[in-house]
## 1
Amino acid sequence: MAKFATVVPAPRSLPMRNVHPIYVSVVALLMLVERPASADPLSELSSFSVFDKIDLAQLAKTDVKTAHGPPMANPRYLSVQSCYVVSGTPGQHLEALRNWNPSAHRELKVFMHADVPGSPTEAAFAKIKQAPDNAAMRAFVAATNKMSADLQLSREEAARWKPGDGTLAGAIGDFWINVLTGRARAFASGGTSALAPYNHTGNAIRAGEELNGLLREQAKIRKQFAGFLDSTGIGRGSGSLKPELYWEMLNVEDMGVTSLGAFYGRATGGGAEAADVFYYASGGYYADLALYQMWPVEVNGKASTLVWRGDMISSASLATLRGVEKLGSESAMMKDVAKSITLFRKDTAR
Amino acid sequence: MCAIFNRSLLLAIFVVTTRTLAADIWTGEYSFDETYIGEANVTRGKLRVSNFDESNTFIRFVLTPRIKLGVLRLGVEYEQFSFGLSQRAPLPNTLQSVAAVVGIDTQISDSVLLRVEAMPGVYSEAFRSGSTDFNMPFVIGGTYIYNPNLQIVLGISVDIDRKYPVLPGGGIRWKFQPQWVLNAVLPTPRLEYELNKNVTVYIGADLKETNFRVGDRFGSDHGLPQLNHAVLTYSEVRVGAGVDWKLTNWLSIDAEGGYQPYRSFDFYRADIRFKEDGPGAPYGMISFHGAF
């Protein structure tokens, strides 16, 4: 019987309560730029996604439709696509995505979530010292104490480790605050291109290259989001769009993992698009990206939004899976994505 | 007719495969297992076959290319049971099978995976004349993925040469602690403990049962003419403990030792059956396996 990697990070939480003025002006500017009109949302959806034939009325009655993404040559990569219909406009949905905090849902395995300011400071990560005491966090502490090869760090970061009292409230917390602050600052100033590789043991892996690889292997998606991604720091230097930064502590395969994330969103004509990226993870996976395309549609006379979401992940543990194991991992990822969308929809429907 | 059908089927599979696969074709899995079982006895009424040992070899090579429908399973497997029997023993000294593996793993929904796999081939008594009839046992099984830590497996095994051609099977795989997995899926239920990323120790069982055809003269040569060209169901149960050591991404070594409490040679259509007599026998197994 197969084993299933559970490397899919819990879905996003983006409580962006402080909208930056520059972001507002960029969005306003973009809203004035007319987007090339596509025949209709369903045609556009089928042009770049795995969803060839979607019955909008039927989809509106269901919760969410998920499917595995196209097969990718790199064994580290996995992708899942989903689509669903929500009531309200794309702008409202984009806002709901920003404000949703999944850490309230225990099943999503997000222990902690916090915003990070545009100019990251150590204070933004101080809460890591109050992380809950559970088996996954104890595994995280143990891995740090022995500078495990499972930790994803650069040589310089690993060299800064000074064993102290061996607790999260002490030396371990200080170490990770330092790592996270450095990485968040690097991303804020220069996108994923500015991030140090994971190279403290073994071959160097760069999150930016992993993200580019994921997109390269899904050419239709890359083309669909090319203009948008060019204005972000995803797989490149910092773009013109200002990201909303955050960090999380989550459980990935029974190991506490601390991750840094960034959310980008913009309105496009009547629609919207968004990207949510985990550009750093202390373990479990190298990089993770969720892209959203939103179109205004009318269902039963009500203003609604058709949403396509593409989740893609790069992880070393996926590379060890073959055949049915990989298929099982895709199923697990599909279930996780579907679960998160269901919870998101329940929360935002209130 | 049968040969034409098989050739057409293989051609169709080849065409579909080469058209739809790209770089993904050279993924697969393999296994080479060698088991030695110490001396034991079997009886049928007053007739006793004593003190014979067994060597079991199993080789399997399966390509698992990805296609739109799922993961194809195309390969070959070979199995041999060699028994240290005296010439007078009314049992076959060697049972051999060579079969293709043709199957697919596919996703029915985000919670259910389905495997359909056939093993068309020859299940013979040392490839002797009359024992090389074609047979095609197959399995159809579904896995319900409740979550990444718990899966439920249900399926059927079909073999028209078996006493009961259709048998149900299944079990659960439950990772109930970070390092503990109850992999209770037939025919190899196990309780596994992951010592570290590369080493897993386990206790478990292996329930083996295969149907073989013996040669045209097997019965006459052993004073039981009704066994000429007969179907023999060979079964054995092994219980033991082992360690699986993952050396690289593509190579693991599994060493296992334990006890064989049950074995039977059942010519069920002739109503002649030899079964374990006495305390069974110890066994040792080494396996090289992996995926690429």
## 2
Amino acid sequence: MAKLDSKVPVGPLKDKWTTHKNNINLVNPANKRNIDVIVVGTGLAGGSAAATLAELGYNVKAFCFQDSPRRAHSIAAQGGINAAKNYQGDGDSTYRLFYDTVKGGDYRSREANVYRLAEVSANIIDQCVAQGVPFARDYGGLLDNRSFGGVLVSRTFYAKGQTGQQLLLGAYSAMNRQIGRGKIAMYNRHEMLDVVIVDGKARGIIARNLVTGEIERHSAHAVVLGTGGYGNVFFLSTNAMGSNVTAAWKAHKRGAYFANPCYTQIHPTCIPVSGDHQSKLTLMSESLRNDGRIWVPKKQEDAEAIRQGKLKPTQLAEEDRDYYLERRYPAFGNLVPRDVASRAAKERCDAGFGVNATGEAVYLDFASAIQRYGKEQAHIKGLNENDETLVKKLGQEVVRSKYGNLFQMYEKIVDQNPYETPMMIYPAVHYTMGGIWVDYNLMTTVPGLYAIGEANFSDHGANRLGASALMQGLADGYFVLPYTIGDYLSDDIRTGAIPTDSKEFDEAEKAVKERLDFFVNNKGTKSVDYFHKRLGKVMWNNVGMSRNEKGLKEAIEEIKQIREEFWKDVRVPGGTDEFNEELAKAGRVADFLELGELFAKDALHREESCGGHFREESVELDGEQKGEAKRDDENYTYAAAWEYKGEPSDAVLHKEELEFKDIELKQRSYK
Amino acid sequence: MNLTLKIWRQKNANDKGKMVDYKISDVSPDMSFLEMLDVLNTELIEKGDEPVAFDHDCREGICGMCSLYINGEAHGPDRGVTTCQLHMRKFKDGDTIYIEPFRSTAFPVVKDLVVDRSSFDRIQHAGGFISVNTSGNTQDANAIPINKHDADTSFDAATCIGCGACVASCKNSSAMLFVSAKVSQFALLPQGKVEATDRVMNMVKQMDEEGFGNCTNTGACEVECPKGISLENIARMNREYLKAGIK
Amino acid sequence: MSGIIKSSIARKVAMALSAFFLMIFLLQHFAINILSVFSPDTFNEVSHFMGTNPLVQFALQPVLVFAIVFHFVMGFILEIKNKKSRTVKYVKNNGAANSSWMSRNMIWSGATILAFFVLHFIDFFFPELNTKYILGDLSGMHNGEFKYYNELLHKFESPIRVGAYVISFVLLAMHLLHGFNSAFQSVGATVGRKEVMKKIGRAYAILIPLGFIFIALFHHFNGH
């Protein structure tokens, strides 16, 4: 296997992408008609890539496991999409977006990739508006912006709380146009179960038709994975139920290095777990922290009384409340970055101050905001600012207009009125910055195999800023991959169609079938979910928000143990040649059980705290930053790319050293 | 609480299918409806029975994958929610709950409660887009100001999640609300006006070919729509269609 | 143009257009009938005009008959097609949760109105045609005076007929309670004025049939 070559073009940072585009090989339009490309996944990255490749003239085969490309989980993104448009004239620029992203990622991303991302970001907005994406506008008819955590400008474009939906439907519409023209062959309810490598190059996939159970062979000159993140290794996350690592993991097993698996974003504002039956967690937009104040009771006995239902949060006097973020981080207060806010919540709950029955929740309180807005409104309208009922009513109206849909969602799930009593929130797994290692061209270590969007590792380093995931997915799919893939495919113009009757396809299909047969014939006693939940618990407790050597070592052993039990005792009802969701789930959980171990191994080896990865051993010991995360730039300024060697424990580490020529490495401080 | 479930079981598209009774106990009011079905399925698997197949994915009401006709209503008795957002506190101890797939000739049953809604996709292929290449060489996003009211109305139409509750609730299995939401979204934006004529003609043609029924304006779709897509979109599409027909 | 006649929206529009014509006709019919309450002579004169004016007889009347036939036939065709679009029925369906009884049962209110039409044609329209065009008597006279008012009184003597008449008009009201707005919605005329249209629709749907019922009852109780 070739050593890691990031293929970053030479030259000044700001010219790299332009120079690269000018120098790479292109495929002429007539030849594109003879080239097939497989795109797996139809979210923002996969969908936009499939549409663009088809427009360029390639024959595209697109796959998704859902019943329509429009269901991909990109659709659930709420807040917005960043772009360095500087429409607000507040000093934004490509460089500033680049700088914020690198800093937000705690200096663990590849500089050149991030700069390119910032560079094409403005194009995304132009493109989406042309496609008919109904972004929010102001009364002058121009696009509106909002501000997000960790930055000093307003560069986030949005469509109410449904930005991801609107952008995905935009990409879906671009796909529809190409499907209608016959340039994309769309395979819904199909799951990729292996990549086929012929002569060292990715030449196709094995997919299962989830309706009929048929195993299909599909060949192409290149394979693109836009299959999203692997947060569901935790069982409970804000990901969709079907989100999985299988495609990425199969690619890993076929030679694609897996980079930084331990970088996971835990989002601080999610609705807490209500019981054992819980199947997924629901995110409440980060924007709530603009107006909500986070607190727990100051005294442990109050916390206990609240947990037992003897005391109501509204009865607690102001001096008995601990606004711990404001206390610990006076400069940023409730608006510290996601990783910091999450860890602080965990710290309080672990210390026994949690406020719901499970002890794992903190309050997000809008009472002050309601008061503040209410007084302001009363003043504007010339009404009595001291009339409490009036002020409350006016304040609630303002809050409703800003966050109405989120409050309604909360009330539906929790059955409490957040206008009257504080919301309860707790951190939950949200996004995975790690993923398949790719070079500057977004190609993995397997020639002809590409990874885009959340599935790759490249742009967010150890922590992702809000509203950057949508930006990266669309940048990769619309504007980066379609160019860079031509460089590789230019060698394939005379290859002709790839046959699917080669021994490589035979072997891959056989292995896939054997595994499926194993599952339905295994006489186990436990459901797939039983093992998935156990894995999730280990991951959450030992490889979650804060990690230490002992816990990680235990986790590795426990995951091995669960994996063994899984293969012995899993029960999958039904057959292979029919619609069988348990069978599909079994395959996904089997892969999570391997990834989970590599995840813990990666976390164990990285003996520093950076971004979403917090090692208890690596904290500031004294000074103003005492107790805060401590990065180790001397030893860990690299991306850890793991090579598959059989068992996850045998994985071999390859390092891509990260160079920061345009940015000075600094400690993140929010005090 | 303890419940009796009457669930439609159908092995595959060719099977005739029937209602089957199940008892489920210790259901927590905090469970979502689908979590209640998860519990049932785990019990079935551990007993050696086949679990009930149903579509679901995001479980936060946005992907549009979940369906289910619960006690005679698409997405159940609550308003403005999908089935995954419906909670068991909407039911009482001892209730009998009927669970059926979304019914329409254009939505054939795949298995149990899972239906094939690819007819919706085909309607979108026929014209649910603006013909602009994704080259990145379009004009600046702020080059054409768009009246805020139009942009907001367009957004409201665009929030359709394509779940099919409109078809399932309509006594005629009409897909007019779904199709009109897309037609309206684009008809309200200057970018979409260029090919408005072709779009509405092609999408309606495909809709008819798929075997959906005729709209008789009962308004059931609007009431059951989890995203509150307005009937006004249907009127707007009718108008667009008339305009296109007269041209 | 030819392709769109088969389309679902074109059919809706055609239903709406025939409905508009019928609703205008109904209004006109009511305006004439109510005269019988205030002034039998005027009623007779207008009736005679309508019955003998060539424009009304040979232009509007055929259009009316066509509209009635079209509206019914198309209504039944659409109903059959709509039934076909859901071949497997729900075991449990709660239509009342999301739509009005009227909107879901247009076919039944329509069928009742059709039955009324048959009665009405037998009562008035066919004898009229017979007298005028087969027997060739265009005078409109009977025993030396206009016959229209007396025929009207005669028909409203039987309580059974009046009862049938009242029931039919109640169902017509229900048909209109949904149909009026539905027709405007079908031609896209409700965009931006949904609420106003609802109010107008409700007023028309209740007042006009109520008026007809009033006329029938008035003559039934005051006729002799």
